[in-house]
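We emphasize that the prediction below concerns an isolated chain of 611 residues; any contacts that depend on oligomerization or on bound cofactors are therefore not represented. The input was used exactly as deposited, without trimming of termini.
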Amino acid sequence: MLCRRALALGLGIACCLASHPLPARAEPCRPWITYSEVNQVRALLVRDGQLWAGTQGGLARWEGGALLAAYTTVEGLGAGDIRALAQDDAGAVWAGTWGGGLARWDGRRWRAFTASEGLPDDRVDALAIDAAGALWAGTANGVARYDGTGWTTYAVADGLAHPWVTSLAIDATGRLWCGTGLGVSVFDGDSWQTHPLTTTYGASAVQAIVIDPQQHVWAGAWRSGLYEYDGLQWRHYTVADGLPSDDVRALAVDRATGHLWAGTWFGGVAEYDGQGWTAYTVQDGLASDGVVAIATDPAGQRWFGTAGGGISRFHGATWETWFAADGPPHNTIQAVATRGVQVWFGTLGGASRYDGATWRTYRASANGAGLINDSVRGIALDGPERVWFATAGGISLLEQGSWRAYTTTHGLPTLDVRAVVVDRLGYAWAATSAGIAAFDGKRWHAYGAADAQAIAVDGRNRKWFGASAGLIAYDGSAWQTRTVAEGLPHNQVWAVLVDQEERVWVGTEGGVGRWDGVAWRAWTAADGLASNSVHALALDGQGRLWAGTREGLSVYDGQRWRSFAVADGLAAPWVKALAAGDEGALWIGTWGGGISRYAGPCRVRLPLLLR
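Result of the prediction step, given as a token string:
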């Protein structure tokens, strides 16, 4: 149970070594920890008594019900979003990631393969091993074969129907079948042939492909059901034939019975015995009706990776949710705020609060007992009992367990709210795409029509707003806008921060800028920033400035910049939100990779030598 919790909290492999504990004096140092949403299970692999699960937030491996290890970018994966898994004849496990290329696990470490080494694209959606032991990889820009020494790639120019290859299967004669964005393409080693599977929508976008013991090819498509090819003609199955949904996302052949399993997008899963379909949904015990991965084992157990429900296991008579973890509700983190031991996160799927041990998630509710919208862009902690949320559907206030919602009917200029802050007098301010708004305790009052993104308040209670047309300042009586004409690095200001010396720092599309009240100073990638597109800023307890960019994380110590990338342990390249915790760690919200926590470099303690 400890290691299951470890995966949920992103503690990675370190916690899962509990069966071989280190001496207390040698407690392992973990400068980076990833916290991610792992209930979006995209790939499953059952081999040699072990279950591997690729999720939107990393990779996990179990044996006999015990979690052996959890892998994220900290352990060497190129990205945390795992889309495909395969095991080769040597026993190595391959993981296809979305954005980080391929990774190969040899039992000890991960080795990365990316576009720079011959892979057509770093977005990998499908994997297969052929009879010669070579690996095939389907990517967003073609398919490639790796023979252990080099890559051979195939694209539309070679005969592939569409560049996006979503699924792969190899038949008994060695032919490669590819599910693509425009039907099925098959490669016999010399030439390509395409089956468009034309419907009223045009050629079908195939999302899954599998070959049964009779060598029939099955292809699951987006919004057009399921197709079966017997070598001569295609047969089409839809909801009219018993499928629970025409959006088929996963296919597998049962090793024990030979039956076909089809996972659908929020229609549940269906079993086909050659005569008819039997459907299963959450009412039967399935963890979620969105099924995107299926695997079966020789013991007759069926494993289902779901969208948001973790993993379900079916014994043939009963269902169980075999794994479902706590954590953030989505891996795109748009806001971070800290208060004591609590850390709040705004995501594309709701908000979460983490106290170091447990997670609590808040989502939109139709009856008003929750967020007004699940896309949370900003969070303001207003005393011990009030939390403001800026969302894509207005503003929500959580106060002593009760919710209130504010929309345009309450004075907001638009529902598209990007940031919220509480000033030194206790008034809430909001940055929106159609102007700035202030709350007087009853209603919101709009000012101007600026496309605003961020807010900061200085020691004199002046408000500083980052906008698409520059930096806007309001002193309580007058408004002033600063632009590139005055020295601002770029007019698109994504982030604003005021330091202890009342200097204003901005993150812009042209780097970092600092206004000291007299003049501007700017820093760009040429000075050591990871990227000129800076979307988040934070100050830590040592007075260092952290900058979250589209291509990594950077820190400025007053003299020079140092940057961190995925290879260093960052969950994903694009850093959207930052906050320093009271415990000295930096909390990092990324786009698509979840949350990283950076505690600083490990310190080596030398033993005391007695003479």
